[in-house]
Amino acid sequence: MEYSDKILSRSIDPSVHDMLTHAEGLGLETVWDRYEAMLPQCGFGELGLCCRHCNMGPCRISPFDEEGPKQGICGATADIIVARGLIRMIAAGAAAHSDHGRDIAHTLLLTAEGKGGGYEIKDEAKLMALAAEYGLEVDGRSKEDIALDLARAVYGEFGKQEGPIQFTRRAPEKRVALWKNTGIDPRGVDREIVEIMHRTHIGVDNDPVNLILQGLRASVADGWGGSMIATELSDVLFGTPTPVRSEANLGVLKDDEVNIIVHGHEPTLSEMIVAAAQDPEMLALAEKYGAKGIAICGICCTGNEVLMRHGVPIAGNFLQQELAIMTGAVEAMIVDVQCIFPALGALTGCFHTKFISTSPKAKFPGATHIEFHEEQAYDIAKEIVRMGVENYRFRKPGQVHIPADTMACMVGFSVEAIVGALGGTLDPLLGAIKDGAVKGIAGVVGCNNPKVQHDYGHVNILKELIKNDVLVVTTGCNAIAAAKAGLLLPEAAELAGEGLKSVCQALGIPPVLHMGSCVDISRILVACAAIANALGVDISDLPVAGAAPEWMSEKAVSIGAYVVSSGIFTVLGTVPQVLGGPVVTKVLTEDANAVVGAAFAVEPDPFKAAKLMIDHIGEKRATLGI
Known about the structure:
The chain is of the alpha/beta class. Helices cover 49% and strands 11% of the residues.
């Protein structure tokens, strides 16, 4: 089928072309239509030059009008306004990911107390390792008692008034010393987020550099604190991922089964949805209504969580959430928190799909709210699955339009799984890096953004990196894009340079390794710290680089800040709202090198972005003498 230039310009994914054409035929709008309706977007907002932090404003500073105001009403300059806005984004992003970690800690606490409604400790070895890291007594004690102490210790990381946050000490000693010397060693997760909100109140911190340093401190509390807590405790409760094969893209939806999509970011509910969908009672009910089974599929990071632990197929990434509903084949869209369009409520009203919200933190217009509580986890999950199954009888066969596109993938490369694939030690990887078979490692992550062609940045930066013998680790929506493009298969090594191809073929792994959801970027930090410690250097000395080709969320701002704060050069594919502040822009893209040993670059072209990363990796190799 031929598609219009307008449709082709929106995505590189053929399933998206199919569904956008279908949406036009149905007269339904999508995120792309709403984006185009916003054009031209506010130039002041794009540059970060508007301030609504007090009611004397809103204020804006015009770089376009020489006679226009150069200060806000309070006297704040462009750089002060831009820095305030930037670190408030960091605060929101750090709060989102760290609150995820807090919720997982709460689930572990309830499970240890015997109050978890169906949860259990699945990785006892990881529990013991974390207990040792926290200095907890383990000899002669039950795993439940140890888990209780660990949960309480982890809870303490959020409310601490003085540090350190335990997991920050996984970083090389040189990195920890740098954080201390620059004043960005975090004290407690919540304290750093609250301090951002205080400092950005009118009349408090009006030094752009000082504001940015506090933003970096809060971001480190997120990456090496809240996010890392979420990852590690999820592994304890749900199992540490190991490589598993599955499928990706909208074609995973079934025309003869009950389709239930889990969408959002927290795995506590989705784990139980997967279990409840296998309940004989639910399967019998599905059969009663004429379905051949119950198909659970994922969208976004909740999808990544169940994909890597259970092989549950993933239907798509962020910009495909509306398109999944437009297939007319989804009985229930179950959501928790983060990256969920409020537009879904009105859209599901055009189909038979049940839109079910579950978090007390997140209600949506048009959704049926079934509040999730860990104490009744399985029972609530079963109730939700039942709603989906019973809704199958209302599916309208004439409305069903499922694209045929689907792709196999291999996922679930936790740090432990990578070390296992290497024979239990990092030595083979270090050897491959030293002899040049692998030039370096790139972490490519992040969202989708309708400002750019869907998945174009993700897929092309990955292809360019592996072609130049750079091993890629990926999380989040980038990982889903990679899955759909076939880059998460060992066979994709044929697209890699000769050195990386030989390593991948010897180990039977893809050249792009799926490490999980957005919070699992913490796994990349752990891997970098382990490599740096093995070489006796800082993370900033390693031939590594990061990228977020299509980022859009505040979480991504916090992620970028903690990756750079960890010493990793990072390329952004969409322009952050800071260019109106020349001092802030210079600090982020240049001066940060002298402070934390890394900085940002902005490059929308994925081929040019890959070259920046490859060149940086080459420079680090030369400095190390390899």
